[in-house]
Amino acid sequence: MKNIVLCFDSGWGGPGSRATNVLELRRLLDDTDSQLVWWHPIGAAWLRMRRRRAISDAQTAVVGGYRVIADSWQRGDRIFLFGAGYGGYCARALSRLLDTVGVLPDRCHHLLDYALATYALPRQGRTPQEWRQVTELTEILAGRSALSVPVHFLGLWDSVRIPGLPRSAAGLPANVRIARHAVAIDGSAFGEIVGDGPTDRTAGSDHIGDHIEEVWFRGVHADVAGGPGGCRPLANIALHWVLDGAVRAGLEVSPIRRPAPVLGESDAVAGHTPTGGLRRLPPAPHIHDSVRVYLRRHPGYWRRLPATFCWADPDWAARGERLLPTPRRVRVPAADRALAHSAV
């Protein structure tokens, strides 16, 4: 069993404070025999790109990610998908594709080419019922059933709809086992939330509720997803929250590269309060507990929050301790210990 980790970035912002959370995550991962890591930047200058080129770039990313899985996935492997901004849209699209057509065998190469061209990044929205019809047709053409391939973990930072494409299908497909989505309270209207509308999960599903988490963080898109123009301390809070869920789910993070436990109240109050571009929060959202710290110093921010909500992740400031690697026990020979004592 191995991990297959696919990272869809919203454009490489460069080193340091300009790096996106997806790039920061990629730097923490080692490509080993037990973990395959793939990273794809999806257009570093979206605002300057023509819509057709933007859609083509995103389709290339989704198809490329699918082929990585098709070439390396074996039953029992765990798939981790990560995305920020437009990359989050691509990660959700790939999870839907894996639920709809699964991993088709090589003998179905004509069917595979058609499925990738038609369903990887469809130009029109589809209902859960329509996606099930696609699955049924694919099962008939492929001569096999139970096509769906599970996505073990889906990690998103402020997923954003790609201009010219429909909003992601409501909810998450049933093949997503665990998910964490960090959403920007002060983000744009193009932002997507997992909780939009009905979902194709059944009420009896054993991975509904606690395993699918969507939490709202203070700041604009770049303050949550990272990248140029964002506040790095705020982005670190969202980075650690998604990373913590992934590590709990079995993601292997390099012991040498793990982030230091730097989160604290100073991070929660960093940056400034945006003056426009506010999005509407859904009823009874989960608000990250770091916002509570900011409210104590800036009570006017209460106006950004709905009347009813829940606080989430109360122990966020202590998370760094959990993300630190466990120190290795080093056995020192008795002769060396005696030599050390004699030198004191």
Automatic annotation (TrEMBL):
<dbReference type="Pfam" id="PF09994">
    <property type="entry name" value="T6SS_Tle1-like_cat"/>
</dbReference>
<feature type="domain" description="T6SS Phospholipase effector Tle1-like catalytic">
    <location>
        <begin position="2"/>
        <end position="244"/>
    </location>
</feature>
<dbReference type="InterPro" id="IPR018712">
    <property type="entry name" value="Tle1-like_cat"/>
</dbReference>
<protein>
    <recommendedName>
        <fullName>T6SS Phospholipase effector Tle1-like catalytic domain-containing protein</fullName>
    </recommendedName>
</protein>
